[in-house]
Amino acid sequence: MDVIKDIYTWQQEHQRKPTLAYFETVVKGGALCGFAIDLDDRSHQAGEMAARVLKGEDVKTINAEYPRKTLVALNRKTADTLGIMFSLDVLNLANVIYHDWEGKEVSRKSGLK
Question: How far apart are CA 102 and CA 112, in angstroms?
Answer without folding.
Answer: 19
